Amino acid sequence: MSRGLALGVLATGALMTILDGSIVTIAMPAIQRDLDFTPTSLSWVVNAYLIAFGSLLLLAGRLGDLLGRRAMFLAGTALFTAASALAGVAGSPAVLVAARFLQGVGSAAATAVSLGILVTLFPGTAERARAIALFSFTGAAGAAIGQVAGGLITDAFGWHWIFLINLPIGLVTIALAARTLPADRGIGLAAGADVAGALLVTAGLVTGIYAVVTIERYGATSARTLGLGALAVALLAGFVLRQATARRPLMPLRILRSRGVAVANVVQVLTVAATFAFQVLVTLYLQQVLGYDATRTGLALLPAAVTIGAVSLGVSARLNGRFGERAVLVAGLVLLAAMFALLARVPADGSYLVDVLPVMLLAAGFGLVLPALTALGMSAARAEDAGLASGLFNTTQQLGMALGVAVLSTLAAARTADRVAHGDDRATALTSGFHLAFAVGAGLVVVAVVLAYALPRPRVTAGAAPAENADALAA
């Protein structure tokens, strides 16, 4: 078995799901026209996927530990591929939304265990850092390809093909995964068959993510949003209490005793909330204020994705090995804070070369942040908990994405409406709304910088064993 080929399989699986997500956002207007979605119901093309994906990651990660991570990856990829076929032939809104939900379930099953498989394939510190850098690179590659290909595929072949393109990728991934990923039997359901805990955490995450993704429709302070938020908090608190007392917990709380793991996941929520909202809001700025079409928007965003990918693949592993993940994380966060500071000043009559391109280049900071956070988030995972740690890390990533888009988009829309009411023209009002959202994004990144200093400083020693790093991070 070639570990390099196995890593390629894992990266391809991640690429497929990220590619799907970014392509869909570009194709939304065409989907609305063809299937007669109402403006309100159209958001469920995205929301159905996010709810299923985000709420099942933690459970899927633990089931991978119990039943076998390779089996979970294969099952998830197969379901995602089949659901993509269903979405590609959908002739009604109900069928497409149902297919998107199934895509989310399959993606959760495959994604949740990917990092767990990776850290068992590459136990050495240096080789693991290189593998994580390559895996992180696929995120930027998927975003870049999706933004550009979404407009091209939709215009040339129709929106159906943004889903059908997953079929050959999925089938090849399944065939190669069955041959290259290491066979593991799992530790058995008896080691963590906590049905009550599974119900509590899944219900809590579904409720919480649903509350977040509907903020723009109902308002952040509405009784519906606050009630659902309170219910989600109560369910998740019940889950934590259950894990502290259950004989065979679904999520052993020992995984959160590592300061590195706990803080890395909190920093990830803040950072991803800001950066994912950046992608969405910059897209809106380019299209609604500067008047770009879908293809031109994708090309305008390409420098950010290419820069992020080049940094994460080219230099992040070496920097992490030399200076330690905490120092690299802080440096990347500082670059992102500068990026948001510039975005908070973009004019309504902005120029791409002067006002937007410098921002795209500063996005390189995310290429430093993500590999460092991934290493820290997986730092204290035991072999039997690797899937759980992977699921937890991916769950906080999805929560950050959902929170960032919902909250910052709502703030931007509220400021825009206020400026329109005061007589501003639409472009000026929209830009003012984006300024507020980007300023809040900068604040989130600054808080992440402060928290990053609470991370333990690892001992950076050439050739250090993984256990040494884990001990340092758990200090």
From TrEMBL:
Positions of transmembrane segments: 43-61, 73-95, 101-122, 134-153, 159-177, 189-213, 225-241, 262-286, 298-315, 327-344, 356-380, 392-414, 434-455
InterPro entries (alphabetical): MFS, MFS_dom, MFS_trans_sf
Location in the cell: Cell membrane
Membrane topology: Multi-pass membrane protein
PROSITE patterns given in the database record: MFS
Sequence ranges assigned to domain Major facilitator superfamily (MFS) profile in this UniProt record: 6-460
Pfam families for the chain: MFS_1 (PF07690)
GO molecular function, one term: transmembrane transporter activity
Record keywords, A-Z: Cell membrane, Membrane, Transmembrane, Transmembrane helix, Transport
GO cellular component terms listed in the entry, alphabetical order: plasma membrane
Protein name: Drug resistance transporter, EmrB/QacA subfamily
Lineage: Bacteria, Bacillati, Actinomycetota, Actinomycetes, Micromonosporales
